[in-house]
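As a warm-up, study this chain.
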Amino acid sequence: MKRKHRRSGQSAAALAALILGACSGERSCPECSTLVIAATGEPSSLFPPLVYETVGRDISDQVFERLAVLKPGGATIDSSAYAPALAERWVRVSDTSWRFYLRPAARWHDGSRVTAEDVVFSFEVFSDSALDAAARPALAGQVTAEAEDSATVIVRFTRAYPEQLYDATWHVRVLPAHIWRAIPREEWPADTALAHLVGSGPYRVAEWVHGQSLRLEAAPGGSAPITRVVWRFAPEADAALNLLLSGEADVMEHLGSPARVERARADTALRLIPYPSAAYGFLGFRIQDERGRPHPLLGSRELRRALAMGVNRPLLAEGILGPGTKAPPGPMSRLLWVLDEATAVLPYDTARAANLLDSLGWSAQPAGPRRQGRRTLSFDILVPSTSPVRRDLAVALQEAWGMQGVGVTVTAVDFPVFNERLARGQFDSYIGAWLDEPSPRGLADQWTRAGWGMLNYGYYANPAFDTLFQRAVAEANPGQARARWREAMDTLNADAPALFLYAPEQVAAVSKRVEGVTIDPYSWASGLRAWRARPR
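Now compare it with the structure written out below.
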C-alpha cells in the first residue's frame, strides 16, 4: 500500500525539534515520553494483510492486535503459552471450535467499539485470495470465524489438530470493518489514507513522512510511559547506526555485522542486548529432479554423508557470522520450540569422511579432485550475489572440501536469477536461508515430499521421515511432541539432504537512557509499552 507522503528537507535538528516540540505542553519530561528507533529500510505498507517486511510488522504490531499472543519461548500446542490481547479469555467448545470473549473496553482509535463482526471480517480478509496475505494458506478453507454475539466469537476448524489456538491467534490482526468494508478490496493496496490505519493497539499512526520517518502516539486511555515512538528510516545499516551513535536515535533492532557491533560497543552511552534470531542458514543438495531421477553425484546418500562429516559446522558458523552464532542440529532457528540439542547429527570427522569416499570408489589424486574412473568428484554451490555471508560460507566450504579432494566451484548470481534457478532445478547445491515462524509445520514445505514444487528445491524425499514428521505434528502433548520431533530430525540428519550451517544471534543497541527493555525475537518491539526513558 503506497501512501501519499510529503517530502521534507528538515535537518536532523529540525526533526528533533518537531518530535520534542509536539509534546511541549506535557507536564512530564518530553524526552522521557519519546523514543526514536533507527530502522534499516522503510515498509511499503502498515496494513496487516499487506505487510511483508519485518519493519512493517514491527510498526503495525503496535497498532493492530491479535486475539491472543504467544508468550516468548512458548510451544504452539500448549494452550497455557498464550496471553490475552484483544480477547480477554477463551475456552474450547469442541474438538473443532474455540470461543473467544473480547475485552469489554476494547475500542478502535476513532472511539468505535471493537465487535465480534470485526473479528469475522478480519478472518475473511486474511483468507481472501484477491489479497493473498502471507497467512492465507494456513486459513483459507480451514479456519473461519462467526459472531455469537457482539462481544463473543466462535473460531471453527475443519478438523481437530493440536495447533488450533495458534492458527486462531497468530496469523490474524483484527481490522476495523466499519472502515474497510466499504472500500473495494482491489483498491486496498493503493490506499494512501493514514486515517484508515485505525487499530485497537497501544499506539496509533500520527504521521508518515516518506523517506524519513514515521511517528506513533499512544492511543487514548493508554498507560505506556513512552507516549511517542518515532521510526527513522535509513537506506542501509551503517546509516542507521550513525543515527544511533550521533544521539539522533535511541534504539537499533539489529546491528548485523561484527564491525557494527564493535562500533556500538565502543559507545559508552549504549548497551548491547543479544538475542537469538528466527533465521537459519543451510547448504541444500539437489538430490533428484521432479521425476525422481537422481543427481549423478549428490543423489548418493553415502556421498552426502561423507561431505557432511568433512565440515566443522560450529567453527564455520562462528568464523563467518561471529560470536554467538550456532550450528543448529537441524532445519530450525534457535527459537523453534522443538529444537533439541540432543538431536543426532553427523560428526565432524575428516578421517571417517575420507575412508567413506575411498569405499565409494573415489580415489585421491596427487593433484586435483578425486576420481572414479572417468568421473571427477566436483560440483557447484549456487549463492545470491547480494549476500556476502552466503558467498563467504560457500568459499569456506570450497576450501574445506578441497582439502579432502572434492572439487567445488561457486556461482554467484543476482537474487531473482538465484530464485529462478532454484525453481527450475538448475543447480548442484545452494546456500539458502529461512526465517522461522513459531510453528514447526512450515518445515513440511522445505523437507517433505509434499514440498516438491514448493520450497523443497532439492527434491528430498524419505517416506520414513514424512511419517515421523506427521506423527510429530499430530502430537498434542508438548513433552511427547519434542521427543517425536527429535526422532524425525534424527532421520533427516542421517540422510544428509543438507548441511545446517548457522543459526545466528542478533544484537540490538539501546541507549542507556531507555530502561525495562525486553525483546521477543518474533516481534522485537512487542514489549515497547512497558519501556521507560530517562532524560538525555
